Amino acid sequence: MDAAPRRGNNNKRRRREEDSFEEFVSDEEGGGGGSGDDDDGSSLVSSARARVLSSPPLSTLLASSISPALVFELSSREKRARRATMTTHHFACQLPMFMPVGTQGSVKGLTALDLENARVQLILGNTYHLEQRPGSALIETMGGLHNFVSWKQAMLTDSGGFQMVSLSDLLEVSEHAVTFQDPATGNTTTLTPEHCMQVQNRIGADIMMALDDVVSSTANDPKRYEEATYRTTRWLKRCIAAHKRTDRQSLFGIVQGGLDLALRRKSCEELVPLNLPGYAVGGLSGGEDKANFWRCVDASLELLPENKPRYVMGVGYPVDIVVCVALGADMFDCVYPTRTARFGTAMVSSGLLKLRSRSFANDMRPIEAGCDCATCKRYTRAYLHTIVTREPVASSLVSVHNVRYMMRLMEQIREAIENNRFEAFVQQFMRKQFPRVRANDDYAVPYEKMEEDGRAPVWVREALAKAGIALKS
Length: 473
Ligand SMILES: [Zn+2]
Prior knowledge:
Layout: H1 17-31, H2 44-54, E1 64-67, E2 70-78, E3 81-88, E4 92-95, E5 97-102, H3 112-117, E6 122-125, H4 127-132, H5 136-141, H6 145-149, E7 154-157, H7 161-167, E8 169-173, E9 178-181, E10 188-191, H8 193-203, E11 207-209, H9 222-242, E12 250-255, H10 261-271, E13 278-281, H11 290-303, E14 310-312, H12 318-327, E15 331-334, H13 336-342, E16 345-348, E17 351-354, H14 374-378, H15 381-387, H16 392-418, H17 422-433, H18 458-466
Parallel strand pairs: 5-6, 5-15, 6-7, 7-11, 11-12, 12-13, 13-14, 14-15
Antiparallel strand pairs: 1-2, 2-3, 3-4, 8-9, 9-10, 16-17
Bound molecules: zinc ion (ZN).
Zinc ion binds at residues 367-368, 371, 373, 375-376, 401, 404.
């Protein structure tokens, strides 16, 4: 059930997000429980629901929605870019946001304290890995994944289907289930939508993803895409029926359709009437051409509801995130910031620093001047150059920086949308990523090549133009 759309810039009513973050953490600690698992009706979701329902005047500009375990409030918008709050059982997330990926409930190389210091709002758990070890039954007896790994902010679990398919030998996809074999052990596993929900309900994350029929975006098999798209809808209905903790956990549906825009639109049309708390765009970021990538994101976002969170799965390159925010996306996840850190690559505003390079051997500067992360406050590029890919602590130090870089990028995006200067932010961001002339002391390499005429890649300019932003050269 959706609340009536309402008017007004809620910025004044909303506390500054930094304040609310600290306040929430200290409230939780003060409350003694720490898990947010209260039943006294004073939960975050109840408060957000009351706030939305008591909000006066109506407007079609700023929409909101109330689900049993999630409240979405759009607070400002610039062109298609959106600034919103998504309140879940454990945490009120400020959108747009980036979500680091934890494997067994932990993000590689980082402690929960590191993640809190970086101001991470939500971490992903991999259902497949968690079910392998320690198993969802044990996690449930420990009071859920939040308690088990000591994480107080929000959590999201994937369906497990993607990992199972990508890590295993796929044996069969039928209407009933997906069956695969672990190449290492030879064990065969069958995953149904019902089992997927049971495992995710035991794990207890704030947001759960429906089991979808995943086909690689480079498969180039129209028939298989079509079959998978319609099966994803049927499986989603089974997931909805099997979901047993609707008061604490919210189920998101996933738009499929391969690279076929008509199929993407059809998928949206089938999913939206199911009135889920949120929607994801799946099946992308798998090596497809960028021109296809942004057109599929655009076609899906155009048809997803204005008053629900929109999550584009598997996106972690800053340029891609900025483009997707411009097209109207709110949530992103990727292993990229922590994975690339383990290979000694740091993310900065002008691109990537490959710290193994000899150019950093005598560089006494921090990774990025002005960065407020624990690594930049203390260590030089020269020191990191000496230890990257050699000492395990180097992975952690560079991960601390990269995750904080991503959080700061999202903070800047949110602030820009709030102040109606997102377009100016995009111009400035892209100029730094794709400069005509690089400063002599800037050793960063770009994420991707500029065009030969020195302008940002064609796909970036085309996607932004569709979002109403004409990139200045
Ligand atoms: Zn830093």
